[in-house]
Amino acid sequence: MKQEIRECLLTVEEFEDFYAQKVAALTGQLYVMLGDLHEAQDVVQEAFVKGWTRRRQLDRDGHPEAWIRTVAWRLAVSRWRGRRRSAEAWKRGGAPPPHVEAPGPEQVVLVGALRELPAQQRRTLTLHYLCDLTVEQISGETGMSPSTVKTHLVRGRAALADRLHDPRTEEGPHV
Length: 175
Hints:
The protein is an all-alpha fold. It has helices at residues 2-8, 12-34, 37-53, 55-61, 64-93, 109-115, 119-130, 135-142, 146-163. The protein contains 9 helices and no strands.
């Protein structure tokens, strides 16, 4: 019995290989979902730490990348909620929250446009287009119904098309 349990745990080397192969892609995916590279790096690292302590679950589920991505997303959502509560507490206390610098001009246009979308649309678009997941896989990972996933994809694409529309590419009136 102990041998069976040991066999289903990822070894240190297997986990290190998994980390080396997936950390950059997962960080990029979370960056697109969150619009904040430092936050993406933090939550992905924290998710891998949690994954290390749950190697048995990672191996048993057979989808360790999805598990890490889901945990990272949940960590980010938890942080957002904490920041919102903190901002509300600052407002109740009458003091303004500390000043935070605005994103610099180096922000990628697409990430900027994605940040304007509702979080679930942004997440769904990222999972579909960046992570190359099917509607069914997204449904399984997020807990949304397949029809809700499809709705988020349609609405997200439409919203991005409006935001990424480049007026310089339109032809003006011919004189």
